[in-house]
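Re-run with default settings, no changes from the original entry. Doing this only to confirm the output is reproducible before filing.
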Amino acid sequence: MINIALITLGCDKNTADSERMLGLLMKEGFNLVTDIEEADVAVVNTCCFIQAATQESIDKLLELSEYKKGRLKYLICSGCMAQRYKDEIVDELPEVDAFIGTMSLDSIVEVVNELTARSSDNSEDTASNSKKTSTRSDVIKRYEELDTPYPNRDVIERVVTERPYLEYLKIADGCDKRCTYCSIPYFKGKYKSIPMEDVIEEAKVLAASGVKELILVAQETTCYGIDLYEEKRLHILLRELSKIDGIEWIRLLYAYPEEIYPELIEEIKTNPKVLHYIDMPIQHTEDNILRRMARRIDNEGIKRVVKNIRESIPDMVIRSTIITGFPGETDEEHKALLDTLKELKLQHVGVFAYSQEDGTPAADFPDQVDD
């Protein structure tokens, strides 16, 4: 039996993708292992949101390639980094035998079968050749068009890898916002919702495995349905998910403030299974910075959204994220940001230093802020 190890780097959306790949592999009959020394095939589901994440992905692939001196025969790079750097990564990482882009993750079984068939077809040379790196003519590449809508899934499989009572449920991918600092649209493509029937079916699979809490994730959850149904349907999705036996709580992440709408607030307020918790990235509060970021809301708009939420749901817990050191940010603007945050009284705030990402408009802005 062929043993496969999968390592996930990056965000919770990657976790959901990895668990789906694991489900497909297990259904095909492969044996899943966590000890890399026992693996015949290793998969790294990569991240490249910022430079540090890209380097972590590269380091992990190089680390795992050393195990080819032992049992490991094949190394697969999947996900974000494979997609973002697809034009150069094949030559830059000769240790890797296959690359799978962000819209091709469901091809994992096909890719593993193709790789392992090489050992069967070339058994006499396996001992001497399979532990070496592939020639570039042999490397496997799977890249579907980024902006292809999610197809209806014939098979819904998930392997729960973390907390058995709580799971991330990805409802969409990609983004249409094109914030000037963000590289995500370049390797995730346009916003695309996963069909509601598939989201519900996957939630049922998770519930049947013992999951009690669903955490809804996407690059932006609040636009769910706009591409498929020509209207926002996150409130409807919440209502349908709450009907699933075994699901007791539903939590909402990545809700952009400018996209929060009255029906969604009402559903959160009245649905006993939807937690009074929302992750709402605002990134900054000062108008000049928000404009330069190409955010679609201003200072007053942020305050208005927070006020509307709290008036409707007084016990709502709001978490947000902030980017500091954006190009051109002045000391005065930073102080004004702190003052606005004090006024908003958000319960949780994550603060991140701006990362200058190649290919994004902000990378070429003047007045880059020193560390």
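Residues 286 and 333 are 7 Å apart (CA to CA). The chain has two domains: 3-142, 166-364.
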